[in-house]
Structure formats: C-alpha cells, structure tokens
Amino acid sequence: MDQENDRRFVPAGKHRLPPLPYPYDALEPVISADTLRFHHDHHHKAYVDGLNKAETALVAARRENNLANVKCLENELAFNGSGHILHSIYWTIMAPEDCGGEPGPAVAKNICKYFGSLGAFCNQFVTAAARVEGSGWGILVWNPAWGRLEILAAEKHQNLTQWGSIPILVLDVWEHAYYLDYQYDREKYIRQWLKLINWVEVENRLLIAMQGGLPLLLACEPE
Ligand code: MN
Fold first, then answer.
1. How far is the CA of 144 from the centre of ligand 1 (A)?
2. What is the pLDDT of residues 70-102, one digit of tens each?
C-alpha cells in the first residue's frame, strides 16, 4: 500500500491536465467538438493551473512562515482541486453514443437497493442536476461510511458534499459544458447526455470504491 501511495504521490504544484480518452468530435452530436475542445483545453486546464498555483504559493508561505493569504489559498485549493478531480472523472465516464453499454451488475444492484429502480435513480439524478443553483454538478457517489450510493447536487465544484463520498458518475452542468450546443436548455443537454454514459467505466469505479473507505462505527440504528 505504501508503494502504491508512493507511486501516486503528486508533489505540490505538479498536477497535469490528463489527455482526453477520445478525439474532440467523438461525442458528437450530443457534445460538439468545439464544446469539448474549449471545455478540456481551456476550462479544465485553468483548474489544473489554479491548483498548481495555490499549492506552490502554500509551499512558499510555509517556507517564509507567512500565512497572511492562507484563507484565500485554501479557497483556491478546494475550488480548483475539486474542479480538476471532477473533470478528470467526467471525461472518462463518457463514451461515444451507444458505446457505453448498460449499467453493470454492481451498479444496477446498488442503484435498485437504495433508489428502488433505475428509473427512480435517473429521475432524481436528472432533476437534481437540472436544478443546481448556478454552476455545479450532478454526482452519483459511493458513501463508504454507510455502504451505499447517494446523489449529490454540488454547487461550483466543492460545495454541498458529504465528506468521504467517492464520485462514481459525474455530470457537469456549468454553462460552459452545454451552452454552445443547447443554450439555456440545461435539461435537454442532460437528457441527451445520458446517452454518453460509459457504464463499463462507472461499474469499474464503483467496484474499486466499494473495496476502500472507512465504515463509521454504529452507523445505523439497531433493527
Ligand atoms: Mn466544466
């Protein structure tokens, strides 16, 4: 485990923009090549740059023992770090239309166990994402504390979470994700976007998430 963590270790200020796993036009017509290019090459890159900048400034602040700007830097860390993580997941859980398969066995089982049915999950996910106030995300998370899935509707990248939750399926509903293609119609974008879900990758993410995490003791009332 130590070796694995050593391999993953990213030094302060050394985050990199991950490449898209498909060409810019792979998600057309649901998401245009222009939207994908601007979104990945400019918006996501800005979060990576912002995160590196905040971490580098914190290294300097520690070295100089000057924490005058720490509140602002912590804000930048949370916003840009969360933006980097969510976008990195967003690219990988999409696939060209009709290539993403169907929900896998672990996903289907855990969705039905908690939400009742795939349809009930979809209704809540779509509606919650459509109604995010301002910019944000619809996120299906695995909550290791309670051993189950949940839907979160995050504002910006970092607000309105449950600590410890692991994002499994993430939907960007910032205007930069859809405005060129759908203008004001966020819900139309969301309904079209469902066709792009890479269920194979979502299944993989859930299986890995379910292996980790610290359960809370006395997490539920006795029957
Ligand atoms: Mn975005």
1. 26
2. 999 999 999 999 999 999 999 999 999 989 999
